[in-house]
Amino acid sequence: MKIEQIYTGCLAQGAYYITSNGEAAIIDPLRETAPYMDRLSADNVKLKYIFETHFHADFVSGHLDLSTQTDAKIVYGPTAKPEFDIISAEDNQIFEVGNIKIKVLHTPGHTMESTCYLLIDENGKDTALFSGDTLFIGDVGRPDLAQKAASMTQDQLAGILFHSLRDKVMTLADDVVVYPAHGAGSACGKNMSKETVSTIGEQKQQNYALRANMTEDEFIKEVTDGLLPPPAYFGMNVAMNKKGIPSFSTVLNNGKIAIDVADFEQLVEDSGALILDTRNPADFSKGFVPQSINIGISGDFAPWVGALIANVNQPIILVTDFGKEEETVTRLSRVGFDAVLGHLKGGFDAWKSAGFDVDTVHRITAAQFENEVKIGDSKIIDIRKESEYEAEHIEDAYSKPLAYINDWVKDINPNEHFFIHCAGGYRSMIAASILQARGYRNFSEIEGGFNAIAKTNIPKTDFMCASKVLK
What we know:
Layout: E1 2-8, E2 13-20, E3 23-27, H1 34-43, E4 46-51, H2 63-70, E5 73-76, E6 87-88, E7 94-97, E8 100-106, E9 115-120, E10 126-132, H3 147-150, H4 154-169, E11 177-180, E12 198-199, H5 200-206, H6 216-224, H7 234-243, H8 248-255, E13 258-259, H9 261-271, E14 274-277, H10 281-286, E15 293-294, H11 301-308, E16 316-319, H12 325-334, E17 340-344, H13 347-353, E18 363-364, H14 366-372, E19 379-382, H15 386-391, E20 393-394, E21 398-399, H16 405-408, E22 418-421, H17 426-437, E23 443-446, H18 449-453, E24 460-461
Parallel strand pairs: 3-4, 4-5, 5-6, 10-11, 13-17, 14-15, 14-16, 16-17, 18-23, 19-21, 19-22, 22-23
Antiparallel strand pairs: 1-2, 2-3, 7-8, 8-9, 9-10, 11-12, 20-24
């Protein structure tokens, strides 16, 4: 028997590859199937089942392509009703894979179809729990995402989750290994650990939501407290996972289309495409195709695309570093952005060489910022998360997280200069590109962000205080 966790850091997502005696199972696969097909070939095993823990909101699953390529059956837990053929498993149903068994544990609460899968080894011992979004390391799944589909409130779903955890999960032996669907950084929870593997016993001791003698009311209050609004693309990804999606190969081939510089502007105009530049912030700031949005491939690319681009069906044309086209399309497809029309042939260098207009961002160093800023008079916008701002920030800075830029941008005074920064420059360049695409040029973006500002003598606060309101 072999269990492999295939962890994708930019999505904080864990898929699982399990083999036993010539057969295999895969749990919660990502969109692209090549990594799984390569493993199946190398191990000379046949994929028997594709298990899904629930209808994922934060990524689009590869179950359909994988099933087509292998003839493996797709398995969901009770109550799941997608628009394609599946095995709708019953609670406690057993599936055999080689010499091991996988037991279905229906654990509603995060969503109503949410299901954990318990691996029983060759000796009949409960060995591992693939807990999906029901149980994370240090946290549990947020109960607010499925309210509309379940016709319930988040408190009602939290109450259901409380009983699922106590009746199904916490009754397992302490040495059962826990393999969750996500780790720290995922928006599917609020308090996840950086660790991606634990045990039932460790979680009983360390996870606030599994606290002994915890009442249902206490659980509901603590699990629902402090939940941030889910990213805009979550609902669209759920729909895609229920209805079925284009083949990944079709999406990839479209993204590989090289668009000549001479045809680029006309295609953008005709299609209404968004120009997405995935180069690093430093290169982008020095020159880019006007109206481009910069979300660097080197950072948390796909989640930021999902959070900031309102519609997964938005046509997109890419500007990438040479050789990064396929990776970019792949990562976009993971969160459902399939409408990539192609990429600029030759990248930005070709655009510049052809003599077309070039835009830039006014980027200054932290030292320049120190010389220019006047605390109390200068407007400073901190676009880090609220928790980062509360830990330490520049005196009199406004807290305006990047995730909500589509809401707060309307409050910007186009005639008043302001400074903008994040932690290191990645997020602030995203914000700068969005602001300029909407006609705002009255700002300076700070290279190196708060990490660089912290080394200056600019006054800072290191205590929690209320965010200022942008006016």
